[in-house]
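During the first year of the project, the team set up a workflow for recording each protein of interest as an amino acid sequence followed immediately by a discrete structure-token representation. This format lets reviewers and collaborators read both layers of information side by side without switching files. As required by the reporting guidelines, we include two representative entries from the current panel. The first entry is reproduced here exactly as it appears in our internal archive.
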Amino acid sequence: MTATSDSAPASDAARNEQGSVTAVTGETSSATGVRPRAANGRFLPADKSGDELPPDRFLDREISWLQFNERVLQLAADPDMYLLERARFLSIFASNLDEFVMVRVAGLKRRIATGLAVRSASGLEPRELLDRILSTAQNLMSTHARIFDEQVRPALAEEDIQIVGWSDLSDDERARLDEWFDEQVFPVLTPLAVDPAHPFPYISGLSLNLAVVLDNRKTGSEHFARLKVPPLLPRLVRITEPEGEDLYSARFVPVEEIIAAHLDALFPGMNVREHFTFRVTRNEDLEVEEDDAENLLAALEKELTRRRFGPAVRLEIEDGMGDHVLELLVRELGVTPREVFRCPTPLDLRCLGTIADLDRTELKYPPFVPMTHRDLKRVESAKSPDMFSAIRIKDVLVQHPYDSFSTSVQAFIDQAAADPRVVAIKQTLYRTSGDSPIIDALIAAAEAGKQVLAVVEIKARFDEQNNIEWARKLEQAGVHVVYGVVGLKTHCKLSLVIRQESVGLRRYCHVGTGNYHPKTARLYEDFGLFTCDPRVGEDLTKLFNQLSGWAPRSKFSRLLVAPASMRSGLVDRIEEQIAHAEKGEDAYVGIKVNSIVDEQIIDSLYRASRAGVQVDVLVRGICALRPGVEGLSENIRVRSILGRFLEHSRVFVFGPDGRDAVYLGSADMMHRNLDRRVEALVRITDARHVADLVGILQRGMSDDYSSWHLAGDGRWTRHHRAEDGTPLLDLQSVLIDEHAARRRGRRG
């Protein structure tokens, strides 16, 4: 349940100056361009009927993202939620907000400073938007701290899970921690004085620090020092190991409390008058000039080094910090008073992930083990399914994490690497782990003499350094590594395996909605289609040729590809539904995405609603669309589902029961996806799969299932109980049960 907010910071002004973006095909399509703005920066009305659309028809994307994180916080505050999962949601909220500040707030500040910021589509002026963001974030952080301190922390204590301070420890516990400090902590600490001979030190982003005020015992003069808490130390130190009757007891003390209790050892001859914890968030958004792909790797590595020294955009301090210390920090860090966030200790509650990982199964979601998909189970051998046999029989649609990643996607690549009849493997990689079996399989395939192409997106936000490392590892093994198209991120999730068979070369394909990452595949809800349909094989061959070489005028059969044809293709599908409605026929548009911001897509949905088309939007995160507004969007409903798994799949349904078209793929409805990324949606043709995808969307929109509902004024309301107070169904839990039943032979 992370935000995964890896948005590019390009200004709206810069995007508008570009007009339409040169497509991956090398052609320029006016259909993919962003609509022009009026002089005041507002998007011009776009209703083809001639009726003007209201200028205030868009919700603000930044405020909408903060509302998404507020929904995460509501799960943490839910007393019916498993206790350790509540702690995990508190940790997720903190991590999400860190990323938002590092990227979105920092990007907005930079655009304001450089004069590139324009009024947002929601109508807010840049400085007005920044003020609202900071105010909303302050309120959310206060609520976050209050939920931890007043609800979750006491509930954990009732279960013998405690986060305590130094003053709460017994003499024996302090003695043990004294020894641990002397052996493991003291040698790695580096106190840094601040005086005329010692300038104020650089404070790294997201590091936890102690501001220490000292008195010289001889002269009585006051001094200031900064002490960084080494990030390699455990943030929460477990006081005793579980044993005997205390097997389920867990007591932790924050490491900064232990360090603070031993400050005298770090400053001998000085009197420690007071100390406070603080934390800085810096601009960590990348700016890389992509003059040519050969220099991209070097340029990115240089920018990663520069990222560490980005300007401060937020200062978190503990509540009791005195004004004299705060004034010093504000002056030296260059933050404004509005960017100072006072918080109760402990700061940085990402550390609650340690608590959530405790082995207390009764306080967590029930155990769940993904199993082999039923269509793959039929051809499963002792080790794994025969993927090629299964795909030749019929297309296979998997849904992670309910269907196992290891016996589907991973098995597909593993078998392709080991099969002597496979002659080539082509793969896009956006995010994956450094120890991924996918990487190992591609290396093994190259070493076995197969042609292996890896299209690596090394600019995947916050994974850049990891991606650089394993891209070089692939190159050293003989894999053809390319970095996609200059100016575009390669975000599509594609695998193509070419195999020599009795009928000739056959192409086996995987098109997914999620990354080739075995760890996130256990936490993210995603779909993946396996097929050997020659049309998809031809489409993927053309697209990989565009990514690795030159194929400027390719056309596709079952794919919609961004930035060339995706926006225009989806708008055309929406227009078809409008035409049906105008003829008095049933019409429907259903969209399941992470975010929907693109104004042209939203305006098309408004036109559809005005024409009488029922529009359903199931969105996890950001939504700039206003549903249920009279005369604009009465026929549009917006729902959001958050829970055990992060809803990550993207599905597009056109026509009642998907009778006109159904697509799935990698793209959200955002400018970055439609204009600045290579994305792919594949059309689903198997009637079973159409029914499955439509069913997921319809259930997500159903009032029988727990979800959040968006109103036209931008407010989200949680609906998780029926009128009689009974809990509504949890869609993810129902899907777990249904997949288990299918495996037992009860269904399917």
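The second entry, processed by the same pipeline in the following quarter, appears below.
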Amino acid sequence: MTRNMKKLALLASLLAIFGPLGALAAPKASNPKPFVIPEIKSWQGSQGDFVPAASTRIVCAGDEALLRVARQLSDDWAELFGPRMEVTTGRAAKGDIVLSLKADKQLGEEGYAIRTTDRVAVTAPTAEGLYWATRTLLQIAEQTPDRRLPCGSMRDWPDYALRGLMIDCGRKFIPMPFLRDWVKIMAYYKMNALQIHLNDNGFKQYYGNDWDKTYAAFRLESETFPGLAARDGSYSKREFVELQKLAEERFVEIIPEIDAPAHTLAFSHYKPELGSKEYGMDHMDLFNPETYRFLDALFKEYLEGDEPVFRGRTVHIGTDEYSNKDPEVVEKFRAFTDRYIRYVEGFGKQAAVWGSLTHAAGKTPVKVDDVVMFAWSNGYADPKAMKELGYKLVSIPDGYLYIVPAAGYYYDYLNTRMLYEKWTPANINGVQFEERDPAILGGMFAVWNDHCGNGISTRDIHDRLFPALQTLSVKMWSGAEAATLPFEAFDERRTLLSEAPGVNLAGRIGTGPGKVYEAREVAAGSRTPHREIGYGYRVEFDLDCAEEKPGTVLFRSPDAVVYLADPVRGMLGFARDGYLNTFSWRPLPGEHVRIAIEGDNRATRLFVDGRLVDELDIRDLWFNEGKARMRDVRTLAFPLAEAGDFRSRVTNLEVHRLK
């Protein structure tokens, strides 16, 4: 055989084994970077996938901190996907998820590394880093039906140590279950600080310009001052401690805030001599010794002892928006701020304050070392000047990150496109710092419930907070290096992720528009598989009307009630968050009608036999002889958990998701 014939024979053999030369030459594509919120910093893809099986175990050393993370992963996996993974110690095998601690300076306190081959190897310098890694695994797994994880290696760590949310519970009571769910949501997106604003008050122009009638609340049980906690909603010490323990398990810090010496009308309602006759009863009198005796005792109640009510490292003492009209008052305010920084530190805590020292410029020294300042308004605290003084700053710029629901100022919904494309914690209301400047601890966004009594529900608050959190998680974790996807792609893909394992405050049913539940007949007292359906829904049913007593419930959940006959006028209506809304229609005995109720984040609509009968949208309420306007929001996340005790016949129930 000639040399050329041998070459041809060899080529034929290779073709028979490997196929055409083009196929032999073309390498397989590497796996693209998985979509995770916040975005993974470093990814090196390989080929293939790890598909969890019934035999997949979570393996770690016997260290209690690691076992806690492993058990949490197992619980959350079961909550999201059904099967529970066994948690074990010892030698790992093919098909396992392995958690281990490993020193790595680049990863810092919160970073982690994951290498996925025939097993998933998760390493981190700390248990906290391992926990964040498990959030990454869960988010990737929930995006495919078989929970597959792409093979490859990732490394991830945050650029900012503090990533959080401040929620105003003073002007609107936020029930504890909502706060507990939000701890879980924050943890799922690697946000690690929840500030709870425990006291505040409304604006007196909505209450006849009378401080005595103006709404005010303090939300935490006090044994030192019985009756101080608001009657319309407050937290017991025990449940507040339990909230902090839940957060600690998920590496989220609860930062309690008692805001003083302004925003303190709840205190002067309780003890009138605490209020300032000159600057308003929502200002404490800084020249009255009783002010200091009261606040000393209040802070002490929550800070003293081996097991204090305020468990975390940081306690926020407020110190914002006090009058600066009189230089003597400014010096007194500065002395007040310094006093309570040191007072809180005396209990072993770190003090946090709202930035106010540009507004309150003066000579009285205010402690700087180890004090965290929340930089919210450049006019109240110039961030560059505060850095020069030596404060550690939390970037919470009001011009970018303040939500005030339905108020007509600041943001109703944050501008997530702008934030995703342009903002990082290094930008404080247009003052630009270098990325990862050591003076910037991180960022927070806030929801302020300024307009007490404006109809806003916790579901409305959630509707505003959740897309903002998903967006800001990206920017607070990685700053300018984040957001490599175009905003449109990010905004579409973020909706594919859960709020958190076991959490569905948005009331999502199904994955897209269409009928998501139906029942041929709804018997009184019966239950459905769903707690509620959130905004963008249509619920319709046939109703054979009977005589109903006032207060007869059609459907209820722990959050809302729909009435066949409301308790006041016997109209079709609904109640949630302490607000009763009624349609201009009532069922009459003997009628047969087809009812449909539609709801979104702006209005709730009633259709009878296909005709729009009433629309409860956002309306204007006027106060103070027409000088003060408040928006009244009449939305409803439709409750489905349980049918009421009605006499009418309800048939052909259909629940539709509209978007």
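For the second entry, the following points were noted during internal review. The chain has a mean pLDDT of 95. Residues 162-494 form a domain with the TIM Barrel fold (CATH 3.20.20.80). Both points are flagged for discussion at the upcoming steering committee meeting.
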